[in-house]
Amino acid sequence: MGPASDAPSVTQLTRTLEDYLAEHPAAAVLEDGRVLFDLRSARYTVSENHGRCVLQLWSEERNLIRTVVEVRERAGSLRLMTRRMGAPRPQALELVPTSDRRTPTARDAARRTYQKILERALGRVFIGAKVDGFRSAMDLEHSFGPAYVRGRLLRGTAAEAVIGVGSAESAVIIDGVLTLGILWLDFCRQHSDGRRHFGGLKVIVPTGAWRTTAERMAWLNHAAADFQLFTLDERSEELTAVDFRDTGNVESHLVHAFSATAVVERCQQGIDRLLSLVPPAARPRVEIRPRSASEVSLLLHGLDFARVRHGASAHSFALQSELVFGAGACETPLTDDNEPFARELFERLFASRHSEGLHTDPLFRLQPERWLESRLRAGVPELIPTLRRGLLYSQVPALSSGDRGLLDLLTLDRTGRLVVIELKADEDLHLPLQALDYWIRVRSLNADRQATPGSSRPLSAFERQGYFAGAEVSAEPPRLLLAAPALRIHPANEPVLRYFVREVDWELIALSEHWRTELKIIFRKRSAGY
C-alpha cells in the first residue's frame, strides 16, 4: 500500500526539523526518556538524501544516523519516528527544548525537600537567629523563579537575606544564584519598612558548585553589604563556609593571535567554491571571518553558514581544505552530490535573513546576538568614538573552568585601556554577572605581565600572544561595556550593576530598537568609576 496522500513530503519533514532546531538551540534528543544528545555541545545535520529525510547527530560520546519517516508535534516537542539501517521496526526519538527531563511534579517535590533541608541546616548553624519566611514561589514582578529558595535570618532589628539552590538544578541555574541573591537583598531592604536593617546576603550552593559564585562575589562591593557564601551537603545537611576571597588564581587561557590575511589566503580556493553557491546578488553581504589559523567562516549578519578548514588529509600528510555548510550546530560536509541542496539552503537563508525580514522566520531570528555583534564590529568606532579603530577582536577565547569560553568583543580605548564588550539582543537577567566573568578573566590576563626580550617594559599576556600589535596595552583594569536594545535591557540589570566594586568601571549602553537597520545609542548609564 502506498503512502497516505496527506503524508508529509521529505522536504516538509526536513523543513520541520530545521525550523525546530533553529528555534531551540539548547534542544536535546531523547530516546526512551534518556538524553542522547545535548545540542548545546553536539552537532547535527538534516538532509534530503535519495528521497529520504536523514538526521545525523554526533558528539564526543557517540554518533547516530537515522532516516526520519514521521514527525509529530507534541506540546513544545517533536516526536520523530525513525528507521535505523537493519532495524526491523521504526524507533522513536524525541526532540525537546532543553535537557531537563524532570516532570513538573518531581521538580516541585525536589525543591520543597531542599527548602526543608536548608531551613534545618540554617537553624542548627545560626543559633539564636530566626529562620523566617522561606519560600520558592514564582514572583515574576520581581524576577524570582521557583528554582531558588529565599528567606531571612532575623536577630532583633538586624537581619540578613538568604538564598539557596539545590543540587538537582542545572549548572546554569546554580551559577545564576548570585544574581537572584542580589535582587532578593535589594527587595528585602526596600520592603523592611525601616524596622530592620538588612546588613548582608548569605548565598548557599551545592557542594562542589561554588567556584563561579565565589569568583563573582569577590568583585562585589562589600561596603554596601556583607556577602557570605556557603555550601550545603543535602545528605548530611552540613553547611560549610567558603572563603571567596581566597579562590586561587582565576583559571584562564589565551590562544595565540594568528594572521587573518594568511588564513584567508590558505583557504581562498574553498572560500571561492562556497561563494559560487551563494546567489550572485547576495555575495557582497557575505562576511569572511577567520576563526583560527586553519579555519575561515562565511557569515551572514553574524550567522555562520559555511566554513573552510585547512589541514592534513585523513589519509596522507598532504594539506587540503574541508568545506562544510549549515547554520548553528548544523554542519554538513560539502560534496558534489549535495551542492544543489547547499545552494537551495543558501538561497533560503539570504531570502530570509535581512533587515526587513519576517520576525516569524526562524532563519531571521537565529542567533540575534551574533547579528548585533556583526553590526557593532562594523560600527563601533562611529558609535563610540573613544574606542580605537581597527583593533577589535571578536569571540576571543578566554577559557575558564566554566562553560562560557568566548567573550563577545575585546578592544582598546584611545588611552590603550582594554575594553570588554558584552552584548545581548534580548532580555537577560544575568547579563551583568556573565559580563563580569569575562572582565575578571581579561583583567587577570592583563595583569599577567612579564619581562620580554626586546621590550622596554613588561608585557601583558595579550601582548605576548600577539594581540593588539603595534599598540601599548595599559596596565589599568579593563572597562566593561554592556550593550542591548533599549527595550531589551532587563530592569534588574542596573540594580545588580550597582553592587559591583568601584574597580569594575561599567557602562550600560541602550541601543536603538531597530538596530538591524539603524545603529545608534538611545541612552547610557555609567558606574561611579567613570
Describe the 3D structure.
The radius of gyration is 26 Å and the shape is globular. It has helices spanning 10-23, 104-125, 171-175, 177-190, 211-217, 260-275, 339-352, 362-365, 368-383, 431-447, 461-464, 493-497, and strands at residues 28-31, 34-38, 43-49, 52-58, 63-74, 77-83, 91-96, 130-135, 148-155, 158-165, 197-206, 226-233, 238-242, 253-254, 287-292, 295-300, 303-312, 319-325, 332-333, 393-399, 406-412, 418-423, 479-485, 505-511, 521-526. The chain has 4 domains: 10-96, Protein Yojf, Chain: A; 104-246, Trna Endonuclease, Chain: A, domain 1; 260-361, no CATH class; 368-526, 3-Layer(aba) Sandwich (Trna Endonuclease, Chain: A, domain 1), CATH 3.40.1350. The chain has 12 helices and 25 strands. It is an alpha+beta fold and 530 residues long. A hairpin with a 2-residue loop joins strand 9 and strand 10 (158-165). The model is unreliable at 1-5 and 399-404 (pLDDT under 50). The relative contact order is 0.08. Strands 2-1-7-6-5-4-3 form a 7-stranded antiparallel sheet, with helices on one face. A 7-stranded mixed sheet has the order 14-20-21-22-23-24-25, with helices on both faces.
